[in-house]
Write a structure and sequence with these properties.
about 290 residues, alpha+beta, Jelly Rolls, four-stranded antiparallel β-sheet, 7 helices, about 25% helix
Amino acid sequence: MPEGQMHNANALTPAQAAQYWRDGYLFPLNLMSIKEAARWRHTLEDMEQNYGEAKMQRTLGTYKRINAQCVMPFAYELATQPRLLDMIEAILGPDILIYGAEFFIKEAQSEQIVSMHQDLTYWGLGATDHLVTAWIALSEVNVESGCMQFVAGSHANQILPHEDTFADNNLLSRGQEIQVQVAEENKTDIVLRPGQLSLHHGRMIHGSGPNSSEDRRIGFVIRYVSPEVMQEVAQKDYAMLVRGADRARHFVHYTPPPSLFAPSHLALYEEMREAQRQAMMAGASKSSTLYD
Protein backbone atom coordinates (compact mmCIF):
# COMPACT_ATOMS: atom_id res chain seq x y z
CA MET A 1 0.00 0.00 0.00
CA PRO A 2 1.45 3.42 -0.94
CA GLU A 3 2.69 5.49 1.98
CA GLY A 4 0.01 7.83 3.29
CA GLN A 5 -2.92 5.90 1.78
CA MET A 6 -5.70 5.56 4.34
CA HIS A 7 -7.45 2.27 4.95
CA ASN A 8 -11.21 2.30 4.55
CA ALA A 9 -12.60 2.00 8.06
CA ASN A 10 -16.09 1.50 6.63
CA ALA A 11 -15.29 -1.63 4.59
CA LEU A 12 -17.34 -3.56 7.15
CA THR A 13 -19.75 -1.97 9.58
CA PRO A 14 -19.47 -2.83 13.29
CA ALA A 15 -22.69 -4.78 12.90
CA GLN A 16 -21.22 -6.84 10.05
CA ALA A 17 -18.06 -7.58 12.01
CA ALA A 18 -20.18 -8.62 15.00
CA GLN A 19 -22.26 -10.87 12.73
CA TYR A 20 -19.10 -12.55 11.46
CA TRP A 21 -17.97 -13.38 14.98
CA ARG A 22 -21.46 -14.54 15.96
CA ASP A 23 -22.23 -16.73 12.93
CA GLY A 24 -18.71 -17.57 11.75
CA TYR A 25 -19.38 -16.21 8.26
CA LEU A 26 -20.57 -13.14 6.40
CA PHE A 27 -22.13 -12.81 2.94
CA PRO A 28 -22.81 -11.42 0.40
CA LEU A 29 -20.23 -8.65 0.34
CA ASN A 30 -19.78 -6.53 -2.79
CA LEU A 31 -16.19 -6.39 -3.96
CA MET A 32 -16.44 -5.52 -7.65
CA SER A 33 -18.89 -5.17 -10.51
CA ILE A 34 -20.05 -8.09 -12.63
CA LYS A 35 -18.09 -6.60 -15.54
CA GLU A 36 -14.88 -6.44 -13.50
CA ALA A 37 -15.38 -10.01 -12.29
CA ALA A 38 -15.74 -11.05 -15.94
CA ARG A 39 -12.36 -9.44 -16.68
CA TRP A 40 -10.69 -11.47 -13.93
CA ARG A 41 -12.40 -14.61 -15.23
CA HIS A 42 -11.12 -13.86 -18.72
CA THR A 43 -7.58 -13.49 -17.35
CA LEU A 44 -7.85 -16.88 -15.67
CA GLU A 45 -9.34 -18.62 -18.69
CA ASP A 46 -6.83 -17.00 -21.05
CA MET A 47 -4.06 -18.48 -18.88
CA GLU A 48 -5.78 -21.88 -18.95
CA GLN A 49 -5.96 -21.73 -22.73
CA ASN A 50 -2.37 -20.65 -23.27
CA TYR A 51 -0.61 -22.61 -20.53
CA GLY A 52 -2.68 -25.78 -20.60
CA GLU A 53 0.02 -27.69 -22.47
CA ALA A 54 3.03 -25.93 -20.98
CA LYS A 55 5.80 -28.29 -19.83
CA MET A 56 6.09 -27.56 -16.14
CA GLN A 57 6.75 -29.88 -13.23
CA ARG A 58 3.11 -29.83 -12.10
CA THR A 59 -0.18 -29.77 -13.93
CA LEU A 60 -1.84 -26.40 -14.37
CA GLY A 61 -4.64 -27.68 -12.12
CA THR A 62 -2.16 -28.15 -9.28
CA TYR A 63 -0.86 -24.59 -9.58
CA LYS A 64 -4.44 -23.31 -9.54
CA ARG A 65 -5.39 -25.36 -6.48
CA ILE A 66 -2.58 -24.53 -4.09
CA ASN A 67 -0.55 -21.34 -3.62
CA ALA A 68 -1.58 -19.71 -6.87
CA GLN A 69 -0.39 -16.40 -5.41
CA CYS A 70 3.19 -17.70 -5.57
CA VAL A 71 3.29 -18.28 -9.34
CA MET A 72 0.44 -16.20 -10.85
CA PRO A 73 0.78 -12.41 -10.59
CA PHE A 74 -2.92 -11.86 -11.28
CA ALA A 75 -3.81 -14.13 -8.33
CA TYR A 76 -1.63 -11.98 -6.08
CA GLU A 77 -3.23 -8.82 -7.49
CA LEU A 78 -6.73 -10.14 -6.94
CA ALA A 79 -5.90 -11.19 -3.37
CA THR A 80 -4.46 -7.78 -2.44
CA GLN A 81 -7.13 -5.40 -3.70
CA PRO A 82 -7.31 -2.57 -1.15
CA ARG A 83 -11.06 -2.90 -0.56
CA LEU A 84 -10.67 -6.62 0.09
CA LEU A 85 -7.81 -6.07 2.52
CA ASP A 86 -9.92 -3.42 4.26
CA MET A 87 -12.59 -6.07 4.88
CA ILE A 88 -10.00 -8.50 6.21
CA GLU A 89 -8.53 -5.81 8.45
CA ALA A 90 -11.96 -5.32 10.02
CA ILE A 91 -11.77 -8.98 11.12
CA LEU A 92 -8.09 -9.66 11.76
CA GLY A 93 -6.68 -6.23 12.53
CA PRO A 94 -4.01 -4.19 10.73
CA ASP A 95 -1.34 -6.90 10.29
CA ILE A 96 -2.28 -9.32 7.51
CA LEU A 97 -0.52 -12.19 5.75
CA ILE A 98 -1.71 -14.34 2.87
CA TYR A 99 -1.35 -17.99 3.84
CA GLY A 100 -2.60 -19.34 0.53
CA ALA A 101 -4.82 -18.68 -2.47
CA GLU A 102 -6.45 -20.95 -5.02
CA PHE A 103 -8.91 -21.12 -7.86
CA PHE A 104 -11.63 -23.52 -6.76
CA ILE A 105 -13.44 -24.60 -9.93
CA LYS A 106 -16.25 -27.08 -10.51
CA GLU A 107 -16.76 -27.69 -14.19
CA ALA A 108 -20.25 -27.61 -15.71
CA GLN A 109 -22.25 -30.78 -15.15
CA SER A 110 -19.65 -32.01 -12.66
CA GLU A 111 -20.32 -34.54 -9.89
CA GLN A 112 -17.46 -33.17 -7.81
CA ILE A 113 -18.34 -32.17 -4.27
CA VAL A 114 -16.72 -30.85 -1.12
CA SER A 115 -17.68 -32.87 1.95
CA MET A 116 -18.66 -31.09 5.16
CA HIS A 117 -15.47 -30.21 7.01
CA GLN A 118 -13.53 -27.59 8.98
CA ASP A 119 -10.63 -25.97 7.12
CA LEU A 120 -8.18 -25.95 10.03
CA THR A 121 -8.37 -29.70 10.61
CA TYR A 122 -5.17 -30.61 8.75
CA TRP A 123 -3.28 -27.37 8.15
CA GLY A 124 -1.08 -27.59 11.24
CA LEU A 125 -2.11 -24.12 12.38
CA GLY A 126 -4.09 -25.20 15.42
CA ALA A 127 -7.65 -24.09 16.15
CA THR A 128 -6.85 -20.41 15.74
CA ASP A 129 -9.40 -17.60 15.54
CA HIS A 130 -6.88 -15.62 13.50
CA LEU A 131 -7.54 -17.13 10.08
CA VAL A 132 -10.30 -15.94 7.76
CA THR A 133 -11.11 -17.20 4.28
CA ALA A 134 -12.40 -14.91 1.52
CA TRP A 135 -14.30 -16.72 -1.26
CA ILE A 136 -14.73 -14.51 -4.35
CA ALA A 137 -17.24 -15.53 -7.02
CA LEU A 138 -16.01 -15.16 -10.63
CA SER A 139 -19.13 -16.87 -11.99
CA GLU A 140 -22.72 -17.24 -10.85
CA VAL A 141 -22.68 -19.26 -7.65
CA ASN A 142 -25.99 -20.79 -6.60
CA VAL A 143 -27.52 -24.05 -5.43
CA GLU A 144 -27.57 -25.47 -8.96
CA SER A 145 -23.88 -24.73 -9.50
CA GLY A 146 -22.83 -26.19 -6.15
CA CYS A 147 -22.49 -23.20 -3.85
CA MET A 148 -20.97 -23.55 -0.40
CA GLN A 149 -23.17 -24.29 2.59
CA PHE A 150 -22.27 -22.99 6.05
CA VAL A 151 -23.51 -24.10 9.46
CA ALA A 152 -24.10 -20.94 11.48
CA GLY A 153 -22.29 -20.85 14.81
CA SER A 154 -20.32 -24.04 14.16
CA HIS A 155 -17.03 -22.14 14.47
CA ALA A 156 -17.70 -22.04 18.23
CA ASN A 157 -16.60 -25.70 18.30
CA GLN A 158 -12.98 -26.66 18.46
CA ILE A 159 -11.68 -28.95 15.70
CA LEU A 160 -14.00 -31.94 15.55
CA PRO A 161 -13.19 -35.53 14.45
CA HIS A 162 -12.86 -36.06 10.68
CA GLU A 163 -12.47 -39.16 8.53
CA ASP A 164 -10.36 -39.45 5.37
CA THR A 165 -12.43 -40.75 2.46
CA PHE A 166 -10.09 -40.04 -0.48
CA ALA A 167 -13.26 -40.23 -2.60
CA ASP A 168 -12.69 -39.66 -6.31
CA ASN A 169 -15.38 -36.98 -6.54
CA ASN A 170 -14.20 -35.09 -3.45
CA LEU A 171 -12.15 -31.96 -4.16
CA LEU A 172 -10.46 -31.90 -0.75
CA SER A 173 -6.86 -33.06 -0.29
CA ARG A 174 -7.86 -36.12 1.76
CA GLY A 175 -11.58 -36.21 1.06
CA GLN A 176 -11.91 -35.31 4.72
CA GLU A 177 -15.41 -35.41 6.17
CA ILE A 178 -16.53 -34.26 9.58
CA GLN A 179 -17.89 -37.04 11.78
CA VAL A 180 -20.91 -35.04 12.92
CA GLN A 181 -24.37 -35.29 11.47
CA VAL A 182 -25.43 -31.94 10.01
CA ALA A 183 -29.17 -31.48 9.45
CA GLU A 184 -30.15 -29.95 6.11
CA GLU A 185 -32.16 -27.24 7.84
CA ASN A 186 -28.99 -26.06 9.60
CA LYS A 187 -27.16 -25.38 6.33
CA THR A 188 -27.16 -21.91 4.74
CA ASP A 189 -26.70 -21.70 0.95
CA ILE A 190 -24.00 -19.14 0.12
CA VAL A 191 -25.39 -17.72 -3.12
CA LEU A 192 -23.16 -15.11 -4.77
CA ARG A 193 -23.22 -13.16 -8.01
CA PRO A 194 -19.93 -12.57 -9.86
CA GLY A 195 -17.93 -9.97 -7.97
CA GLN A 196 -19.38 -10.78 -4.56
CA LEU A 197 -17.63 -12.65 -1.79
CA SER A 198 -18.16 -14.43 1.47
CA LEU A 199 -15.92 -14.56 4.55
CA HIS A 200 -15.71 -17.55 6.85
CA HIS A 201 -13.90 -18.64 9.99
CA GLY A 202 -11.33 -21.45 9.89
CA ARG A 203 -13.44 -23.69 12.15
CA MET A 204 -16.68 -23.15 10.21
CA ILE A 205 -18.35 -26.43 9.21
CA HIS A 206 -19.02 -26.18 5.49
CA GLY A 207 -19.14 -28.08 2.21
CA SER A 208 -20.74 -27.93 -1.24
CA GLY A 209 -22.61 -30.13 -3.69
CA PRO A 210 -22.14 -30.96 -7.38
CA ASN A 211 -22.41 -28.45 -10.21
CA SER A 212 -25.45 -29.41 -12.29
CA SER A 213 -25.48 -26.08 -14.18
CA GLU A 214 -24.28 -25.37 -17.72
CA ASP A 215 -21.46 -23.08 -16.59
CA ARG A 216 -18.30 -23.52 -14.58
CA ARG A 217 -18.52 -22.57 -10.91
CA ILE A 218 -15.41 -20.46 -10.35
CA GLY A 219 -14.32 -19.26 -6.96
CA PHE A 220 -11.08 -17.54 -5.98
CA VAL A 221 -10.26 -18.41 -2.40
CA ILE A 222 -7.74 -16.62 -0.17
CA ARG A 223 -6.71 -17.60 3.35
CA TYR A 224 -5.52 -14.66 5.45
CA VAL A 225 -3.84 -14.96 8.84
CA SER A 226 -2.55 -12.69 11.57
CA PRO A 227 1.15 -12.85 12.48
CA GLU A 228 0.46 -14.66 15.77
CA VAL A 229 -0.61 -17.79 13.86
CA MET A 230 2.11 -20.41 13.62
CA GLN A 231 2.78 -23.81 12.08
CA GLU A 232 2.59 -26.52 14.74
CA VAL A 233 3.19 -29.69 12.70
CA ALA A 234 5.57 -29.10 9.78
CA GLN A 235 9.14 -27.90 10.24
CA LYS A 236 8.39 -24.55 8.60
CA ASP A 237 5.69 -22.71 6.68
CA TYR A 238 5.36 -19.76 4.34
CA ALA A 239 3.21 -16.64 4.13
CA MET A 240 3.23 -13.30 2.34
CA LEU A 241 2.92 -10.05 4.30
CA VAL A 242 0.40 -7.81 2.52
CA ARG A 243 -0.49 -5.20 5.13
CA GLY A 244 1.04 -3.92 8.37
CA ALA A 245 3.96 -5.67 10.04
CA ASP A 246 4.94 -9.16 11.12
CA ARG A 247 6.83 -8.96 14.41
CA ALA A 248 6.29 -12.61 15.31
CA ARG A 249 8.08 -13.98 12.21
CA HIS A 250 6.55 -17.44 12.47
CA PHE A 251 6.48 -17.77 8.68
CA VAL A 252 9.08 -17.61 5.94
CA HIS A 253 8.25 -14.49 3.91
CA TYR A 254 8.45 -14.30 0.12
CA THR A 255 7.85 -11.71 -2.59
CA PRO A 256 5.07 -11.61 -5.20
CA PRO A 257 5.78 -13.46 -8.46
CA PRO A 258 7.57 -11.21 -10.98
CA SER A 259 5.91 -12.96 -13.93
CA LEU A 260 3.65 -15.88 -14.71
CA PHE A 261 5.41 -19.11 -13.67
CA ALA A 262 8.75 -17.38 -13.15
CA PRO A 263 11.50 -20.02 -12.62
CA SER A 264 12.51 -18.53 -9.26
CA HIS A 265 8.97 -18.81 -7.93
CA LEU A 266 8.38 -22.25 -9.41
CA ALA A 267 11.32 -23.39 -7.28
CA LEU A 268 9.87 -21.55 -4.27
CA TYR A 269 6.50 -23.17 -4.99
CA GLU A 270 8.06 -26.62 -4.58
CA GLU A 271 9.57 -25.65 -1.23
CA MET A 272 6.22 -24.34 -0.01
CA ARG A 273 4.39 -27.37 -1.32
CA GLU A 274 6.61 -29.81 0.52
CA ALA A 275 6.44 -27.86 3.79
CA GLN A 276 2.65 -27.71 3.64
CA ARG A 277 2.36 -31.36 2.56
CA GLN A 278 4.10 -32.36 5.80
CA ALA A 279 1.31 -30.69 7.77
CA MET A 280 -1.68 -31.50 5.56
CA MET A 281 -0.87 -35.20 5.13
CA ALA A 282 0.34 -35.90 8.66
CA GLY A 283 -1.49 -38.94 9.98
CA ALA A 284 -3.30 -39.59 6.69
CA SER A 285 -4.89 -43.02 6.38
CA LYS A 286 -2.96 -43.61 3.17
CA SER A 287 -0.06 -42.00 1.34
CA SER A 288 -1.07 -39.10 -0.86
CA THR A 289 0.40 -36.22 -2.80
CA LEU A 290 -1.04 -32.70 -2.67
CA TYR A 291 -3.54 -31.94 -5.45
CA ASP A 292 -1.65 -33.71 -8.22
